[in-house]
Structures are given as structure tokens and as C-alpha cells.
């Protein structure tokens, strides 16, 4: 596969000029922090391009190593308002059976009753409730994360990486999002104690959203 796929997940295109963020912000948004004026041109609906994005996680294993994985099947909607960040919103629905850690036996355990129990709870979801501009190109998106039918609020740090017109005529914007959760708060309580102390799987899980978004057609 090339750097850009010729057809993204959905038919997405909207005429616009290439936008790249300048080094310094110049305007204030509705939260009072300085906003890059170039962000105004990004206002509109976007969709995550699955082949060039990653919805991932990492967790400490046996106290000494880190296991990383990702979910490969998901749908998304994103509305970004570059002038009024508080109007921005996002929704992400993930098919949990698509979990991939690179080890088939481990993936089978994760989708089973000890962890995600996909037969009863096939999807997890994130739906934003508010967005604030924290300064520069960093935003904080608060939303409801639902896992195993348990919904709890989370804060997501969202960094805007820039935007560009790709070789196939699609306007792309890049975002990195991160947050850390305690999995037991969503009913993911399975674990094993180690003889030397500690647990086999950390309760803390870091969620990572590496997003390549494409502007949606009007």
C-alpha cells in the first residue's frame, strides 16, 4: 500500500486550499486561549481514514514489559470548529472483536468473558461532551467512554498536527489523542497475582488515537 490509499473509507472530498499551521497563534477562541487563525479553515465535518489511523492501547504486563494493541474496525464522525472549539464534537464506535495485539491466543482471551466479553458487548464507544482549547495546538476533549455497557467520563488530550491536500485530492488533518484509564472502572477486573508481588496485567491502560481525518463532502 502506498502512503495514501486511492479510496478512503468513505467518499470524502470538499474543495479547499492546503492549510499548514504557522508557528505562532494569533487569535483567541471561545475559551480565551490564543488560536491559530489557520484553524478556521478546518471548520467542518471529517471522517477518520481507517487505513491510515490507529486506535490503540498499551498496558503493563507482568510489571516489567508493555503490551500494545489496536482495534482495526471502527466508525467515526468528527466535527471540528476552528473558531469556536467548544462547538467541536466527535463520536467513535469500535467493534471490539477487531482487537489485534499480534498474538492470536492473547486476542482470543481479550474478546472472551474475562475481558471484553464480545458476545454480550460487541461494541465500545466514545462520544464527546465538551471541547476546550488549552493553548497552541492542544485541545482537551471530554466525553463518555462506554465499555461493557458501563459509561464513564474521560478527558482526552488532543493535539492538532497539521493538514495537507494529499496527491488524490483529499484534504487531510492529523490529530494525536491520548488518555489513561483504570480498566476496573469499566468492569475489566480480571487479573492474576505474581508470587513476587504485583499483578500480571496493570489496571492502568493508556489509550492512543493516531488520527488521519479526511474532510467530508458537503
By DSSP (H or I, 4+ residues per run), the number of helices equals 1
Q: Ranges with pLDDT <50 over ≥5 residues?
A: 1-27
Based on secondary structure, the structural category is mainly beta
User: What is the first-to-last residue Cα distance?
Assistant: 28 Å
How do the strands line up in the largest sheet?
3-6-7-9-10-11-12-13
What proportion of the residues is helical, as a percent range?
Answer: under 10%
Main sheet: strands, sense, barrel: 8 strands, antiparallel, barrel
Secondary-structure element string: EEEEEEEEHEEEEE
Outline: elongated
DSSP summary, beta strand count: 13
Q: Give Rg in angstroms.
A: 19 Å
* Mean of pLDDT: 85
Beta-strand content: over 45%
Architecture overview:
With 218 residues, this protein is mostly beta strands. 4% of the residues lie in helices and 49% in strands. The chain has an eight-stranded antiparallel β-barrel with strand order 3-6-7-9-10-11-12-13. A two-stranded antiparallel ribbon has the order 1-2. The longest helix is centred in the middle third of the chain and has 8 residues. It starts with 26 loop residues before the first strand and ends with a strand. The relative contact order is 0.21. The N terminus is likely disordered.
